[in-house]
């Protein structure tokens, strides 16, 4: 797009029309407007919910212990938070040109009690994520069998068997990051005789040594191993954690999207056959949408270049199809203090 500059005959100022044009065209405006309406609706919903809450409480007050009352208020909040997250995912899916049912929402329930998981389940959700083998093995039997559990923590070889035997309804392991763990999982699934286990290959896109995952350069090789050397595993896509401050490091998600392109080329599969698991409470919309939707606010100086991107239709898309959301649904986590 070109900037049209002219001198306003009245004021004598030079005007640049391109800026106005960008604002009018920008999906950002649309986005702000939707978010504004959404926020208004949410706050009126919250008000409604609160008033319903007070009535219920008044009725229940005579019968219920104060501690239980507090717990049920928190539980109600988790179900409401789930609905709000699902709505945001729905909208982000539409903005990124996907059907909402193409996006998997994994409710990450680590360190949260089974009662809270049950509340979110009762609100209709079936997909939950856990990080620690001992915790999921304890929790799963206390909760309904039709939950699809995703294991999203680092997995050690000696924990594979307890995980698989303790959680028969384990749907997915998102954290396969080397051949050794892939082989262990493959063998254990075969020995137990359960149905093939869906897996994601975890990629370390941020280069931080504290993060697990295969190097992006080794990604294709590991995926090939999983899909052709592990008959009991079903390769479903790639997963990454990325840096917490997405806005400064959108390249983490871009890196995973590039890995997806390479994997699809190497295996001769369509992108729909290689999901991307990225995005958590703080950045799931960004992971689904891609940064051009957000950057205009962050870096006004580059507005013109971005508008070029829009007008030529080359919008960079992160394209996450599997978001893992914990604290926004369940509330902030409190880890037991280390002794
Ligand atoms: C804890 C965790 C999440 C959820 O994080 P929130 O910021 O609470 O949404 C997602 N993915 C992984 C791998 C996690 O360990």
UniProtKB/TrEMBL annotation:
Residues 42-60 have a biased composition (Basic and acidic residues). GO terms for molecular function: pyridoxal phosphate binding. Residues 42-63 are annotated as: Disordered. PROSITE patterns: UPF0001. The keyword Metal-binding does not apply. Keywords: Pyridoxal phosphate. The modification N6-(pyridoxal phosphate)lysine is found at residue 110. It comes from the Eukaryota. InterPro entries: PLP-binding_barrel (IPR029066), PyrdxlP_homeostasis (IPR011078). The keyword Acyltransferase does not apply. Pyridoxal 5'-phosphate (PLP)-binding protein, which may be involved in intracellular homeostatic regulation of pyridoxal 5'-phosphate (PLP), the active form of vitamin B6. HAMAP family: PLP_homeostasis. Belongs to the pyridoxal phosphate-binding protein YggS/PROSC family. NCBIfam families: YggS family pyridoxal phosphate-dependent enzyme. This is Pyridoxal phosphate homeostasis protein.
């Amino acid at each position: 797009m070109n900037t049209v500059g002219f001198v306003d005959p009245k004021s004598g100022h030079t005007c640049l029309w391109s800026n106005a044009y960008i604002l009018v065209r920008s999906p950002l405006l649309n986005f702000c407007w939707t978010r504004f309406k959404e926020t208004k609706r949410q706050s009126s919903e919250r008000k409604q919910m609160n008033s319903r809450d007070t009535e219920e409480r008044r009725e229940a007050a005579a019968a219920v212990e104060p501690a239980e009352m507090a717990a049920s208020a928190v539980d109600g909040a988790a179900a409401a938070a789930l609905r709000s997250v699902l709505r945001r995912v729905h909208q982000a899916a539409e903005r990124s040109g996907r059907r909402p049912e193409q996006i998997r929402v994994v409710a990450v329930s680590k360190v949260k009690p089974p009662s809270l998981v049950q509340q979110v389940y009762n609100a209709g959700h079936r997909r939950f994520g856990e990080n620690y083998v001992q915790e999921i093995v304890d929790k799963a039997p206390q909760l309904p069998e039709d939950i699809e559990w995703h294991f999203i923590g680092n997995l050690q070889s000696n924990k594979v068997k307890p995980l698989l035997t303790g959680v028969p309804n384990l749907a997915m392991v998102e954290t396969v990051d080397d051949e050794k763990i892939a082989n262990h999982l493959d063998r254990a699934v075969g020995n137990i005789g359960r149905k093939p286990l869906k897996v994601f290959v975890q990629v370390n896109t941020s280069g931080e040594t504290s993060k697990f995952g295969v190097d992006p350069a080794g990604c294709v090789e590991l995926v090939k191993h999983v899909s052709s050397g592990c008959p009991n595993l079903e390769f479903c896509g790639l997963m990454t954690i990325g840096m917490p401050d997405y806005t400064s490091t959108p390249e983490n998600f871009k890196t995973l999207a590039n890995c997806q392109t390479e994997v699809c080329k190497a295996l001769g599969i369509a992108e729909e056959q290689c999901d991307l698991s990225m995005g958590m409470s703080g950045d799931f919309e960004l992971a689904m949408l891609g940064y051009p939707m957000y950057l205009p606010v962050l870096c006004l100086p580059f507005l013109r270049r971005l508008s070029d991107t829009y007008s030529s239709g080359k919008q960079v898309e992160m394209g996450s199809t599997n978001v893992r959301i914990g604290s926004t649904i369940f509330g902030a986590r409190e880890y037991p203090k280390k002794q």
